[in-house]
């Protein structure tokens, strides 16, 4: 009997995977050419992208940064043999007007009346970065910095508008007085009475005492910056100012509204629902119309309010309603056990909110909060409709200049790019934060 | 006789209003209500005082005065002698027109892009990601004015269509003229028309309803109803015998044949735009402002809808697909019967709020001169009559009603697809 069986006694050596399955070729085979449909689609899309870039890139790369007018741009381009109205961009308008697009008509010393004051918005922007650092990167900066964040809302408008330093100090003292009254009365009676007394004390200070006392101090010690008129504000400085103030004020207001909407107190709940649904039901532009035409009518006769301040109030209310809904979503997503657990520890309502509920609810709603922020920042361009000179509002003026009459795409492109950079980085930050705060085991 | 366990009987003390949790909520509510009423009263008294100082009695009489301005894009007939009320109505219809058109196209583009973002083709998913980020991160107002500029600057002027050797020509077999003054498309006309019904006499709300349109909608509705009955019958036959009768030609015929017959009876033909003098005549003229607004709102909202659709599909557990495949379902059936019904539940609520956003964003029409309700009532009427309070109240009321009705309809739909839990 012949022995025909074969048994392998040693292992075969390990082989490399086929060259078509790894590396760049393998990646292409799985991601671009995995079947004949996919291959056709890839080729078509590739050709489309190529044609798009071929149309746009020569326009973008045009050496016209130094040109002083549109006709000069055209001469440069024709000198290079490029003709037609899409021959190339005229970047001269950006290099000449970028300061205006950033600062509007903020005094730059060119009129000979006032000095170059643009260091103030720049300083405010840098301080803004420092002030939000403890909020954005809590684990990387000293925690004492949060005190600066608390002071910042009073410094920020002051740097923009200037005037006596005692105005913002008076506003700040209102909060301090309210807090001390609250602590004193809370010790003597209950936290509810303390809260009411604190609010009343703060309002008494703001409405009646602050003006008198701070006026007296400022006549003795006149410290301040040169005041700047609101009508000189413009460009991205204005967009950022409106965006930052609206975002900063709408968050606490939104939390209060969300708590009101979730509460068992029927009347408080009804007021909050009515407010939120009203604001969310109408477009921002109608609220801006209210700011520009009606808000003065609602206030005591003779009150003259600055237009930017009126816009700030309406944008803040608008953002607060959206913020409230986002936070309500976070509150609703918390398991009921968290509320019951807080109750069983004997915490009262505010303690439970501060220590248990809010940290978790805010964490859940971070993506929503950031997208509300992005939305508010984008919506600031709407102020151009009521005549404020945000970047979009400045375009008409620039095109009215004889040198730049007929310019279109370069300005839109520049403004769009600036907004894209701001909003895109905010959304990336939100993703980073979501990952960092993720405490589950996924 | 009293027992030890009886609580001590105490009278009601004023301090209980603050310290006793049974009464405290009442106290807080009353304080809040009083505060709220005081605020409202203060605002109203200020307003009354200010208006009296300005000599403006609040009244809505201006609505019946002649408006005196023209509206170029309109769905109903209107001239400058009509009242402000009529102008507001025209504006409202324009708002609804662009909102409905925008919602439809935004949904189509958004769903397509959202599915394409999940494509396993790297180039396609990257390209759609670029589209989404580009539109989401730039203000919609900028897109509106940008697209308006594209239409005005790059399209040929009507005069380019003239002469022996025109530099531009009409598209789609000489039926559609795309110019920098707008797009002219063929309009449907009837040689044996049934005429119109005039509603509301001669008032500002007068409304002409075309009987032709009603007849067409009626026949179409009946056809769809009959087609649905045929499908139900086929379903029941399939359930009892296991064989499904072939019905597609019946279902198609029952919709198409009566419609064709009706159109023939009405003498349907298309009126083509023609170049007369310096401009096009005939056909339906879609102005640039409408097209720019419509395109910008659609593309912008579509970017948001794409993300919602993507998230909705990704939210469905992979096990669902695998289980459906294990049951022997084909891939399109898996999508229709298993994935989509579940994904819709995730998709619908944010989709509603995006439709709402689109409708509210349509108020930006004012930037390109499209006369929606913000442009008529909140724009020219406000400026001409100086009635800020009344016009803005009416304007906000209109938007509130639109918003609340959209969310009511969508919430009803949402309720009907909701998961029925035990």
Determine the structural class of chain B based on helices, strands and strand pairing: mainly alpha
Largest sheet of chain A: 2 strands, antiparallel
What name does the CATH topology of the largest domain in chain B carry?
Answer: MetI-like fold
Mean pLDDT across all residues of chain B, rounded? 85
Order of helices and strands of chain B: HHHHHHEEEEEHHEEEEHHHHH
Q: Overall mean pLDDT score of chain A?
A: 86
Strand content of chain A: under 5%
Q: What is the CATH fold-level name of the largest domain in chain A?
A: MetI-like fold
Order of helices and strands of chain A: HHHHHHEHHEHHHHHHHHH
- Rg of chain A, Å, rounded: 30 Å
CATH class of the largest domain in chain B: Mainly Alpha
Distance between the termini of chain B: 51 Å
Question: How do the helices and strands line up, and which of them pair or pack?
Answer:
The complex is a heterodimer of chains A (about 450) and B (about 425).
Chain A: H1 23-31, H2 36-60, H3 70-79, H4 92-103, H5 119-136, H6 146-161, E1 163-164, H7 166-188, H8 191-220, E2 224-225, H9 235-262, H10 266-281, H11 284-298, H12 307-333, H13 336-344, H14 349-364, H15 366-379, H16 391-400, H17 409-437
Antiparallel strand pairs in A: 1-2
Helix pairs in contact in A: 4-9, 5-6, 6-7, 7-8, 9-10, 9-12, 9-15, 9-16, 10-12, 11-12, 12-14, 12-15, 13-14, 15-17
Chain B: H1 16-19, H2 21-54, H3 84-117, H4 122-136, H5 140-154, H6 171-174, E1 177-179, E2 182-185, E3 187-190, E4 196-199, E5 207-210, H7 211-241, H8 248-266, E6 268-271, E7 274-276, E8 279-281, E9 284-286, H9 288-314, H10 318-326, H11 331-361, H12 373-385, H13 388-417
Helix pairs in contact in B: 3-4, 3-9, 3-12, 4-9, 5-9, 7-8, 9-11, 10-11, 11-13, 12-13
């Amino acid at each position: 009997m012949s022995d025909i069986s074969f048994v392998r006694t040693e292992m075969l050596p390990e082989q490399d995977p086929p060259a078509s399955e790894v590396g760049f070729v393998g990646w292409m085979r799985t991601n671009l050419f995995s079947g004949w449909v996919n291959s056709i689609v890839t080729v078509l899309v590739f050709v489309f992208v190529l044609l798009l870039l071929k149309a746009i890139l020569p326009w973008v790369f045009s050496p016209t940064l130094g040109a002083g007018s549109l006709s000069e741009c055209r001469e440069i381009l024709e000198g290079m043999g490029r003709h037609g109205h899409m021959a190339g961009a005229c970047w001269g308008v950006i290099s000449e007007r970028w300061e205006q697009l950033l600062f509007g008509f903020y005094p730059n010393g060119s009129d000979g009346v006032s000095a170059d004051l643009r260091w103030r918005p720049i300083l405010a922007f840098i301080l803004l970065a420092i002030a939000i650092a403890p909020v954005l990167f809590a684990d990387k900066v000293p925690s004492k910095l949060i005190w600066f964040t608390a002071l910042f809302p009073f410094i920020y408008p002051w740097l923009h508008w200037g005037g006596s330093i005692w105005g913002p100090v008076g506003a700040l003292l209102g909060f301090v007085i309210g807090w001390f009254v609250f602590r004193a009365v809370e010790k003597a009676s209950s936290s509810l009475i303390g809260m009411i007394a604190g609010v009343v004390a703060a309002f008494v200070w703001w409405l009646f005492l602050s003006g008198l006392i701070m006026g007296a101090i400022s006549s003795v010690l006149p410290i301040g910056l040169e005041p700047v008129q609101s009508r000189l504000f413009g460009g991205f400085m204005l967009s950022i100012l409106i965006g930052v103030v609206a975002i900063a004020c709408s968050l606490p207001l939104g939390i209060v509204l969300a708590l009101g909407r979730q509460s068992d107190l029927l009347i408080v709940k009804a007021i909050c629902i009515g407010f939120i649904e009203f604001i969310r039901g109408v477009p921002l532009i109608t609220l801006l119309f209210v700011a520009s035409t009606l808000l003065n009518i609602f206030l005591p006769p003779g009150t003259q309010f600055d237009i930017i301040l009126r816009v700030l109030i309406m944008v803040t209310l608008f953002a607060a309603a959206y913020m409230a809904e986002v936070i309500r979503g976070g509150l609703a997503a918390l398991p009921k056990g968290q509320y019951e657990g807080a109750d069983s520890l004997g915490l009262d309502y505010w303690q439970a909110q501060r220590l248990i509920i809010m940290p978790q609810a805010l964490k859940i709603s971070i993506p929503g909060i950031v997208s509300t922020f992005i939305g508010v920042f984008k919506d600031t361009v709407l102020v151009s409709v009521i005549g404020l000179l945000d970047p979009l509002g400045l375009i008409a003026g620039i095109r009215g200049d004889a040198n730049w009459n007929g310019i279109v795409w370069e300005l839109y492109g520049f403004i769009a790019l600036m907004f894209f950079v701001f909003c895109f980085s905010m959304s990336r930050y939100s993703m980073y934060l979501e990952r960092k705060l993720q405490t589950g085991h996924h | 006789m009293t027992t030890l366990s009886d609580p001590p009987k105490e009278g009601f003390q004023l301090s209980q209003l603050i310290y006793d949790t049974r009464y405290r909520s009442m106290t807080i509510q009353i304080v809040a209500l009083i505060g709220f009423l005081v605020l409202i009263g203060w605002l109203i008294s200020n307003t009354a005082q200010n208006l009296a100082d300005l000599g403006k009695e609040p009244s809505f009489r201006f609505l019946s005065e002649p408006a005196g301005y023209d509206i170029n894009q309109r769905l109903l007939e209107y001239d400058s002698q009509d009242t402000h009320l009529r102008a507001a109505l025209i504006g409202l219809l324009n708002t609804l027109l662009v909102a409905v058109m925008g919602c439809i196209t935004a949904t189509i583009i958004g769903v397509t892009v959202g599915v394409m973002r999940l494509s396993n083709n790297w180039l396609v998913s990257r390209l759609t990601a670029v589209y989404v980020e580009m539109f989401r991160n730039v203000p919609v107002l900028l897109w509106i004015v940008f697209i308006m500029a594209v239409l005005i600057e790059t399209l040929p002027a009507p005069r380019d269509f003239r002469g022996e050797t025109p530099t531009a020509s009409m598209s789609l077999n000489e039926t559609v003229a795309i110019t920098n003054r707008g797009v002219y498309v063929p309009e449907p006309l009837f040689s044996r028309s049934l005429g119109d019904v005039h509603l509301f006499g001669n008032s500002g709300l007068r409304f002409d309803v075309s009987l032709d349109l009603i007849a067409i909608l009626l026949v179409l509705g009946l056809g769809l109803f009959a087609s649905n009955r045929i499908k139900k019958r086929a379903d029941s036959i399939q359930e009892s015998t296991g064989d499904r009768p072939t019905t597609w030609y019946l279902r198609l015929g029952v919709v198409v044949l009566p419609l064709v017959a009706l159109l023939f009876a009405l003498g349907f033909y298309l009126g083509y735009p023609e170049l007369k003098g310096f401009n096009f005549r005939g056909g339906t003229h879609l102005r640039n402002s409408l097209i720019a607004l419509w395109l910008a709102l659609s593309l912008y909202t579509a970017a948001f809808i794409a993300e919602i659709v993507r998230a909705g599909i990704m939210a469905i557990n992979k096990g669902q697909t695998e289980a459906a495949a294990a049951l022997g379902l084909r891939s399109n059936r898996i999508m229709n019967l298993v994935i989509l019904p579940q994904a819709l539940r995730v998709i619908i609520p944010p989709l509603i709020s995006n439709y709402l956003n689109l409708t509210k964003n349509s108020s930006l029409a004012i930037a390109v001169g499209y006369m929606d309700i913000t442009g008529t009532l909140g724009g020219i009427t406000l400026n001409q009559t100086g009635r800020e309070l009344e016009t803005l109240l009416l304007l906000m009321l209109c938007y509130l009603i639109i918003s609340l009705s959209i969310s009511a309809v969508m919430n009803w739909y949402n309720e009907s697809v909701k998961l029925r839990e035990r």
